[in-house]
Amino acid sequence: MNSTSLFGDMLQAITDRGRKLLFSGQRDDDADPLRALEQLCETLLSSRGEASGMALSTTILDRWMRLDRDRQQAFLKRLVTAFDADHARLEKAIEAYGVDPGPKAQMELHLAAEPRRQELLRRFNLAPHGTETLVRMREALLTMKRDAPELEILDADFAHLFASWFNRGFLMLRQINWSTPADILEKIIRYEAVHHIGSWEELRLRLAPADRRCFAFFHPQLADDPLIFVEVALTRDIPGAISDVLRDDRTQLDAAEATTAVFYSISNCQEGLRGISFGNFLIKQVVEDLRRELPRLSTFVTLSPVPGFAAWLKTEREQEAPGALTAFDKTRLAALDQPDWASDPEAVAQLRPVLTEAAAWYFLKGRDARGRVIDPVARFHLGNGARLERINVLGDTSQRALRQSHGLMVNYLYKLDDIEANHEAFIGRNEVVAAQPIRRLVPADRGAKAVPMIAEISGPSAPSSKGSKEFSA
Amino acid sequence: MNSTSLFGDMLQAITDRGRKLLFSGQRDDDADPLRALEQLCETLLSSRGEASGMALSTTILDRWMRLDRDRQQAFLKRLVTAFDADHARLEKAIEAYGVDPGPKAQMELHLAAEPRRQELLRRFNLAPHGTETLVRMREALLTMKRDAPELEILDADFAHLFASWFNRGFLMLRQINWSTPADILEKIIRYEAVHHIGSWEELRLRLAPADRRCFAFFHPQLADDPLIFVEVALTRDIPGAISDVLRDDRTQLDAAEATTAVFYSISNCQEGLRGISFGNFLIKQVVEDLRRELPRLSTFVTLSPVPGFAAWLKTEREQEAPGALTAFDKTRLAALDQPDWASDPEAVAQLRPVLTEAAAWYFLKGRDARGRVIDPVARFHLGNGARLERINVLGDTSQRALRQSHGLMVNYLYKLDDIEANHEAFIGRNEVVAAQPIRRLVPADRGAKAVPMIAEISGPSAPSSKGSKEFSA
Amino acid sequence: MNSTSLFGDMLQAITDRGRKLLFSGQRDDDADPLRALEQLCETLLSSRGEASGMALSTTILDRWMRLDRDRQQAFLKRLVTAFDADHARLEKAIEAYGVDPGPKAQMELHLAAEPRRQELLRRFNLAPHGTETLVRMREALLTMKRDAPELEILDADFAHLFASWFNRGFLMLRQINWSTPADILEKIIRYEAVHHIGSWEELRLRLAPADRRCFAFFHPQLADDPLIFVEVALTRDIPGAISDVLRDDRTQLDAAEATTAVFYSISNCQEGLRGISFGNFLIKQVVEDLRRELPRLSTFVTLSPVPGFAAWLKTEREQEAPGALTAFDKTRLAALDQPDWASDPEAVAQLRPVLTEAAAWYFLKGRDARGRVIDPVARFHLGNGARLERINVLGDTSQRALRQSHGLMVNYLYKLDDIEANHEAFIGRNEVVAAQPIRRLVPADRGAKAVPMIAEISGPSAPSSKGSKEFSA
Amino acid sequence: MNSTSLFGDMLQAITDRGRKLLFSGQRDDDADPLRALEQLCETLLSSRGEASGMALSTTILDRWMRLDRDRQQAFLKRLVTAFDADHARLEKAIEAYGVDPGPKAQMELHLAAEPRRQELLRRFNLAPHGTETLVRMREALLTMKRDAPELEILDADFAHLFASWFNRGFLMLRQINWSTPADILEKIIRYEAVHHIGSWEELRLRLAPADRRCFAFFHPQLADDPLIFVEVALTRDIPGAISDVLRDDRTQLDAAEATTAVFYSISNCQEGLRGISFGNFLIKQVVEDLRRELPRLSTFVTLSPVPGFAAWLKTEREQEAPGALTAFDKTRLAALDQPDWASDPEAVAQLRPVLTEAAAWYFLKGRDARGRVIDPVARFHLGNGARLERINVLGDTSQRALRQSHGLMVNYLYKLDDIEANHEAFIGRNEVVAAQPIRRLVPADRGAKAVPMIAEISGPSAPSSKGSKEFSA
Predict the structure, then answer these.
(1) Which InterPro entries does the annotation name (chains A, B, C, D) (predicted)?
(2) Which of A5, B47, B95, C452 has the most neighbouring CB atoms within 10 Å?
């Protein structure tokens, strides 16, 4: 870590000097800072940018960071309007392609159509901490574009660039444990998006015991800041409730005796990298690492939330037409409306079977308007090739879980030999692979709600573009 | 290093398993391995590639590595023909752009025109050691394209990708010294392209003494393999001969007392990264680092070869028309034809002034057919903003130097405060900035050979595309 | 850290195997575990111990750790009685020395008189984590010897051994900051003995800000466990109250602009190393490190508690004979008996001058029964060559400080050029070096209490044998 | 490594300053430097030494290093004469012991008899690089004491101290491979004492191949300088000739397929640590490490020289009385006198059986004047618990091996389950454990040469005090 910051310091020194040379005396920039920034961008793209690229990019990023929100947005808009492709060159390229559509013409078309801001973003990366600043810039952009749809195109530029820079080939897997530097650990606390970590003592309970593991992906340019991490419990059977996993009075297991690895929380860390998918790679890598370290492990399973269930169930309960729920189901489900039903054993006993059956329908037959499995977490794990293994009523009794899913949790099973086939079934045929007991819960006779089987089904990366911080485990 | 290879091992384990799953039973690939490879590439680009990308890319790269040369080339050609853009999509994008040439249409045009092989190359990078293998693949490609111009377009794809991946923001500067692991040091011996390192003892003399330094850029994915390195001597004055720098019986200097840092050798290491320019950044970074470490250093200078001089002088001597040389010059230069003139003090005394004057003309007025300064090393340093400081007759008496430049060496001076202006002069106005004594050697009156001042002057990165291994110092 | 534990694992593997070989079938040890342990110790000292030393020592330490408290103590007593010197050999050595008291006879006398348990302790160290276990063993011993004075001699053996093993030449200085692994940081929280750290957030405030530093000594064999650490605040002037240092709403200083380094807390960490002095070396090393890093620092000063002051003042107030206090002083000091005087401005105003004068006397003229400066913290810093710089009334208003010193704190100044002379004055002449304003507070005329000037004055290491955890800053 | 030297630099800075303070103006030391040094030693032992120990010890060691050889020796002699125990205190301690020989009196006797120079040596260790300098000092001492027996006693002090400081518990095992820093590797080349390493290329052949390993012990204070290392070849059978192991045209083995680990070279590195035994621990640790890494390994064996064989055989051939050799044996052995017999197949065929039988006798029945097994390498391995496994005629045809052992090499087998018993047999009963085929070669009837079975047999550490650099493998 030290060497990283030393290096950062040195870069700083270089660019400080460079900037002094470049910009001494140009203080009338203040009159129109946006205009000045735009000019600097033009210089950075010019040949002069080659000699002074580091100084120029540092200045631009620094100044942008110090702008107020409105001006930051205004600058991003100028990137869209003032740094698109060179139209004259593009017209010529189109013409040439019309004459001879060979690879050269094609390539020239590709290059001519590349917005100049893409090269600009690449050159911004010359600045010390350039990558990090660009990730922050996109984080801001994602918020801004809600009200400014013209920024969508710039977001696509960022996404394109980041997909290349954050290619899995460049990521490093590191274990997070109680010997990890505190500045990284405090980020784990902050980024945890599924099961809140309330204090350092709670963090310790997730990292220090012999039957706990945590792994994260890092990028060389964001050395102290994880991209995504997964928390794992080593157990002897598949847990049905998060409280069993997290309770601190449990008997700790000798890791070598565990048979089961439970992925109970996955969190994306960088809002600015939304849509760049790491989770699939992370889970598979961790499965392999754990198998290597602990050869007795034979079951790899998640304990996952079901964030879309309660909303779906509400709709089903309200609708007249026969569908997922029978009239009798609806009657029994009325117990859900009673406050504190979760601590009333009678209510729970009544609800357990009907919630389980409804959930089976939700996963196996329920589909959203685009024909997709409704639950984003399910889409993530099924798209990765896992199968739906078990439905757990009252797996999570936190307020949030009760609100989102009436406390339901499920397990997804990662069985290496089936991953490929499961993935094909899900992606290729829109089929949900589930364990036999779950499949049996869905009656073959009762007609399924008409599902709009549309051709273009968005794949496993889709969920992350919705709730990037929370497709967890 | 260990952790790197451990990680590599793990990746290997994952992909081994993945491949077993994917390709069991498909052994009839052997019938048409190229066809099979192409199919794998199609799969890798499909949605299935998302679940099994690591296994697929590993298989493809492995198989390609094991092909014979002819089939390797055949595969690369198929990349050009079978993985260009989707023409239907492209036609549609052109049409849409015709209707409304806004940013969205432009972006779609850019994306539609992107050859599919670019995404393919990005996915290849998922394989363990993917980046390294791709660098080796391009190395092969550079040789192949000499006889197969249709591969030029694929080379452009590689260059585009590498420019992004090897962006200076991702490089790490490391000092190379006598505590550096031997497996890296043996690469320094192998890659040194300017002043041959004959043995480990010679290497030791360049790294271990207190008045020597060496710095290299590394990329996280090629962890034990440098991209470029520079060797530095700390001295009290500007040396005129390489033998003064390398002699092992010199008195070693306490680094803290040095006033001058001499960059006497720069070598690019990765043929597969030809055209991706690192030298400019490396020199400037090292200047800053040294200034930090040794505040007494005030002069930063190279001791550089002049590889184009002998060839140019031959032409000048042969031509009748008055130009760089007067008749008297030519007479005096006849001494060069005498074998062993370099060890004949009389011949040297006679040649010294005329060689110096001719060299001044060579740098200041000589231009190649494209109007550029002739010497590639000069173009590199002048393009970086250095100035031509001194001409040294018999600076290098090795056979190679005598053949290339009649033994001439020069010093380029890096003065931080002038770099920007010098760069502008050279790039913007095609002017060579040189020290006053050199400028005085070129007579104002004698008409310069007509220089074809063409508009588009290729910049400082050009030399590297010629002799990537040798623009050194 | 990983490599350490890996190594530990391997040692474990070796010794596990070794023990299996050695002790299979000897389960009747359980009958008389102490007897069995003693036998193992004899074996360890025999030649057989050379081949199986690691296994034997591991077994012995393991078994000892698992004994109950009484048996642990019984074993330590056996070390005293059963493993003293070989009397026959010793008698012979005394005789030989009588004949010829040359160096050889002397050496033999030294060796013959060495209790065999010293070699035993050295061989215990062959076990994995041997050093650590021995430190824990002595920790237990220090408690036990209160009621078992015969163990005193064993403690001397430990002290002798540890003085050699924990020689300053073997210690490593490491900076503790917010990038330090959490398992080390939690020890900092636990070991802090002067100004309690209540939470990780409070720890962060002491480590993360740019104007804070913390340094610790480590020993290679206790890699994750500090021996002693010091906390430093970088400021622009000498603080008089700990609350000024620790307040979290202060304006943070750019470290480069600080002129003063304040050592506001020093804590010994290992009770088992009591009497082995590190503090002197630590402070001086840190002074040098900080001077190197921050050349503007010119003042190095502590902010220290005065733990003996309240007790001394009580005695003085109670005694009739004229001494430190005049009758008028005593009248004014009555305000101390009023509860909450510290928050009563009038009381504080009245007490301030008299407390200051009394404190000056306490340091300059007060002496304990052995003729030493009374305050242990004062003895530590004065013995290190610091001088008493300033007395701060109500420097610490915590309950503990009010109880120990009526809230008084003082500053000791470390001025490198004077350290040697100050040390000489204190050690050689029992003189307290203090700043002029403090010296002026002590009237020259009023006769000092008769000080028993005994010849043998115990030096600066003495305090640590009293309150090892708390001589701090 | 860097941090080590940084730390060294800082220590340097401290002590530079300290020394300036201490010794300014005392330049008349030059008149009698030894006297001045002695005075500094007295100061270092005084209480003042506690405040300025680092500066004082640094000065003393520096000055000693710069003395000429004669004065260095004179200083060491003064350590013997001027820094022995305090005789008055010692007499008193003897007297007290006479009155009551309890543990306290004993301890006081031990302390009083400790030469003051032992504490002095411990304080020398405060200097930066103190440990290293003390090791060098003893290296010099070992040479000097040949002509100055009065230094023997000082050597005992060093040995006592080093046995404590270089306790196996403080050593770190590190693998040496082709990624090891060059400055350590050049020491491997220099220290290799058994099978000369002629160049970096030869070194590479011993470290880089997949079927080679090398391990070394390091001490934290000599971080870049190994104490002892062992070279290992991974094979499929027990080799009989060193040329088979070292040949570079052999087929390399996949490490995972090896069944046998051959320790073919062990070298002690630090002459100054002679007599401090590491080899036993190193071999056993490496055996464990390799078993962990490569579970298929089942045989751990050396390929070792027999340095005492040729000298012994010469004596046997010359003696008339029947002993190891029959008359017929002597006749056949005459072939040894023929030059180049080793390359004459006929001579070899004739010599093979008789050399083998003689060697069996040499190991099993031959004893030196002290009743010990003659061969120092044999004593080392047998003392470690290995057994003599095989005798290899012409195992090493180098000039040196032909001279020392007529080219004979042997294998010692380390079988973990037998180590304890073998060790007991050798140490306890002076029995050589050998494989059955070797034992059969020694006729039961022919009377053994009378062996002086003396009671006190010196153990396995003895050999190292003879040829510390060469008990190898």
Answers:
(1) Malonyl_CoA_deC (IPR038917), Malonyl_CoA_deC_C (IPR007956), Malonyl_CoA_deC_C_sf (IPR042303), MCD_N (IPR035372), MCD_N_sf (IPR038351)
(2) B47
Average pLDDT for D191-216: 95
Report the gap between the CA of A169 and the closest CA in chain B (Å). 5
Among the partner residues C90, C288, C385, nearest to D51 by beta-carbon distance: C385
Cα A93 from Cα A108, distance rounded (Å): 6
D179 vs B contacts (CB less than 8 Å): 1-2, 181-183, 224
Do B362 and B448 fall into the same domain?
A: yes
The residue range of the domain holding B180 is 169-302
Left if phi > 0, otherwise alpha if psi is -120 to 50, otherwise beta: which for A442? Answer: beta
In this prediction the pTM is: 0.85
Q: Name the pLDDT band for B6 (thresholds 50, 70, 90).
A: very low
Question: DSSP string covering C266-289, please?
Answer: EEE--GGGTT---HHHHHHHHHHH
ipTM of the complex: 0.82
Q: How distant is the Cα of B165 from the closest Cα of chain A, in angstroms? A: 7
C-beta atoms of A84 and B103 within 8 A: yes
Same domain for B272 and B212, yes or no, is: yes
Q: How many inter-chain contacts (C to D, CB under 8 Å) are there?
A: 196
Residue among C275, C268, C72 at smallest CA distance from C159? C275
C471 within domain boundaries: no
B125·A169 Cβ contact <8 A? yes
Residues D130 and D255 placed together within one structural domain of the fold: no
- For the stretch A32-79, pLDDT in tens is 889 999 999 999 998 666 667 888 899 999 999 999 999 999 999 999
CB-nearest to C182 from A2, A182, A199 is A182
pLDDT tens profile B10-65: 445 545 555 554 544 444 456 788 999 999 999 999 866 666 788 889 999 999 99
> To which residue do tokens 């031997």 refer?
B182
Both D243 and D386 in a single domain? Answer: no
* Closest Cβ–Cβ partner in C113, C127, C170 for D113: C113
Q: Can you tell me the distance from the alpha carbon of A411 to that of A305, in angstroms, rounded to the nearest whole number? A: 9
Measured distance CA(A373)–CA(A364) in Å, rounded: 8
User: What gap in Å lies between CA C263 and CA C245, rounded to an integer?
Assistant: 10
Instruction: Write the residue in A14, A80, A288 that is nearest to B285 by C-beta.
Output: A14
Choose from A50, A94, A426 for mutation: most chain B CBs within 10 A.
A50
User: Quick check: D156 and C107 CB within 8 A?
Assistant: yes
Separation CA B306–CA B30 (nearest Å): 52
> Distance from C144 to chain A by nearest Cα, in Å?
33
What's B391's domain CATH number?
3.40.630.150
Listed residue (A177, A186, A180) closest to A207, CA to CA: A177
Residues B11 and B136 in one domain: yes
Contact of B303 with B242, CB cutoff 8 Å: yes
Q: B70: distance to nearest CA of chain A, Å?
A: 22
The last residue of one of the domains, among A254, A280, A302, is A302
Mean predicted confidence (pLDDT) in C398-424: 92
In a domain, A431, yes or no: yes
Q: Is residue D472 part of a domain?
A: no
Q: Between chains, do B182 and D183 touch, taking CB under 8 Å as contact?
A: no
Torsions phi, psi of C111, nearest 5?
-70, -45
Domain annotation covers residue B473: no
Same domain for D229 and D176? yes
Same domain, yes or no: D277 and D324: no
Q: Which of C165, C180, C203 is the last residue of a domain?
A: C165
pLDDT tens string C174-233 = 999 999 999 999 999 999 999 999 999 999 999 999 999 999 999 999 989 999 999 999
Q: Which residue numbers of B have CB closer than 8 Å to D's CBs?
A: 1-2, 178-183, 185-186, 199-200, 204, 208, 224
Which CATH number is D102's domain given?
1.20.140.90
CB pairs under 8 A between A and C: 39
Tally of domains within chain D: 3
**A282 and A310 housed in the same domain:** no
